[in-house]
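re: ur question from the group chat, yeah i did fold both. here u go
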Amino acid sequence: MNEGDAFAPQQRLTRAEAKARTREQLLDAAARIFARKGYAGASVEEIAESAGYSTGALYSNFASKERLFLELMAARGERRVAAVAEMLDARDPVEALAGLLERSAGRDPDLMALRAEFWLYAVRKPDAMGALAVQRRQQVEALIGVIGAAAERRGAPPGVPAAEVATVVLAMFQGLLRQRRIDPDRVPGDLFVQGLRWLFAGLYAGAGGGAGGGAGGTTSQHA
């Protein structure tokens, strides 16, 4: 590095880059405030102040608190799907799925609070339910290829409905993550792994005929 480089002025952001950074900082602040105070308790003034901006700057990027909340959840959903897809592509499918619970439990402590807040918001605002449904479909789509690969590696019979299995895996994952937040001692890190084993064992037994009901009953008792 040349001596002059240390004193070189930093490259100025373009207008688009500055706007994108402002939006990201506002979204990060909104995530913290909404998770802590809920949608009703959060104010745009507090969110803007937490991000280091004026309320005018917030409203120049988001038309309302509702729009800010919806865009926050859409952005977090897209980021989550992309991260999960990248993780699953890089590792053995079941190993990757098994690691998701541990990773998610410690990486974003506000995630479950935001998801719960979004669900409550969508229940009361039917128009928002469509946005929530889009997020769920994206998450299921990200899992379908991995579920298919895992089933094929373990000799699953043809015709395993990957989309339906992915929906069950997602529900199991999110449910266990919520339960772990409530009572960590009851949800050890390997419980999701065991749940996946029960699920796949039930798939194979059910496809073979006769034993499927017993496997399903065992799974439902532990859900």
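okk and heres the other one u asked abt
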Amino acid sequence: MARNLSLAEVAEATDISTSFLSLVERGRSDITIGRLVRLVHFYGISIVDLIPSEGAKSPELVRIQDRRLLHSPAEGIDVFLLGPDTQRTMMPMLLEFEAGAHLAEYGRHEGEEWVYVLEGRLSLEFEDSEPTQLEPGDGAYYVAKRPHLFRNADAKRRLQVICVDSPPVL
């Protein structure tokens, strides 16, 4: 409303349906991380602008209770921001996937991405190749413009992954 945009204009610019945007706006539907990223880019804001902050005492120190959470129940994923904000050259995150959970759509963005599996089994999928399985202690580094998707390869256990984007995506 502050930008004088209709839902139809936002829908066209982000390739997200007007009806879905209306449901999210009224709190009647959850939004996937991929769609949220498209909206954040469209509005030229940071994901931190959308997540309440308790205000860490030190701008460089992020205690466990100060981590910001992006919860995506539709995907079964929690994203914890591990840095003080997204205005740095890197954006460290802890991703927790419920058993069998995965991102709803392939992501692609500027820069590079590094992932490291703490717990569980990650299926790292690229649009143009076969999935790669990563076990605890395994990591991967790649150009983030290449469409990629994370999937918990275990239907019975959770997955924990550290992910660092450079530059920040959200």
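fwiw on the second one: Residues 5 and 30 are 21 Å apart (CA to CA). The two ends are 21 Å apart (CA to CA). idk if thats what u expected
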